[in-house]
Amino acid sequence: MTEHWSKKKQIIKLLDHCRYTSGEMIAQKVGISRTAVNNHIAQLADYGIDIYSVKGKGYKLSKALPLFDESLLINGIEDRCFFFDEIASTNAFLLQHSDELDSGDICIAEYQSAGRGRRGRQWVSPYGQHVYGSLYWRINQGMNAAMGLSLVIACSIVSTLRTFGVEGLGLKWPNDIYKDNKKLAGILIELSGQSMDECNLVIGFGINMSMPAQQAEKIDQPWSDLSSLDTMPDKTNLLLALHKQLKLDLAKFEVFGLTEFIPLWQQYDLFYDKEIELVMSPKSIVGVCKGIDSQGGVILETDGVQTAYIGGEISLRGTL
Asked: How far is CA 122 from the centre of its chain?
């Protein structure tokens, strides 16, 4: 796999989003034939990178490609960092190796061929455009101690993005992060172990940095990314900061539970005091959202009575 990406990454570094680079120059710099250049360019397109090709001019990226600085990433994280240009799923990798991991170990990839969101939904993962990662954490009090954890991770992501000047952020129960009322980031937490004993957590997260137009067509909901910012955060620095924030918040969660995070959640809750529909197949419940409780449930007020619900998926009636 390393050899597979060696030439491709050399080609990517020669490409620019402001000017064309000739295929002949790429071939000379990389030490391959013009035919090989064409083949690599075609393969890069299959990985979700939009590249313009004009005869007589060469190749140009449709937009800047925010890649990780692999060396800075690995050296800047005090825990083990497993970095891949391509992987099926960062969550799946950590789950497969959970017996060998320590809390804080992280897996990062530029591309996921089988990225997943909640309820088995596909997470569109074009090469180099976004942040894809999974953090390993061990809880000794069993699975029940992890209740509400997805809300903590969402708060961690919001806290980190705020330090980079990202505005217009919002939270959707139980684990989605929005920007300007469109989905910016998501979380997928998977557990293994016994309900009352030591529990292995794999915390997957994805943050949209710069969505390619062709990949956007595959997404069936309103989305947002960070490309519209005056200064887009450096992806490596963003990940390093997020890793530190996650570890701090997870340690706090183990001691204090979710209670410490409720004020931040309420500050960014997109649905607080709004009428929502909580879909719990085969039925749904309509009420006014009153935030979250200490167990991570969403509180709905119906006919003056407040009730907390753990399962289901929020669907807002009307528009934000």
From this structure: 12
Backbone angles phi, psi at 137, to 5 degrees: -145, 140
27: CATH: 1.10.10.10
Same domain, 254 and 289: no
Locate 27 and state its tokens: 């071939």
pTM (predicted TM-score): 0.90
User: Do the Cβ atoms of 226 and 131 come closer than 8 Å?
Assistant: no
Catalytic residue among 118, 138, 182, 244: 118
Which residues touch 165 (CB under 8 Å, ≥6 apart)?
A: 229, 231, 233
317 is catalytic: yes
Q: What is the CATH number of the domain that holds 183?
A: 3.30.930.10
CATH number, domain with residue 297:
2.30.30.100
Q: CA-to-CA distance for 173 and 199, rounded, in angstroms?
A: 23
Same domain? For 180 and 41 the reply is: no
Residue 155, CA atoms < 13 Å, CB-side half-sphere:
24
316 CB-contact burial (10 Å; exposed 0-12 / middle 13-18 / buried 19+):
middle
State pLDDT tens for residues 116-155: 555 555 556 789 989 999 999 998 876 777 888 999 999 9
Choosing from 183, 235, 247, 290, the catalytic residue is: 183
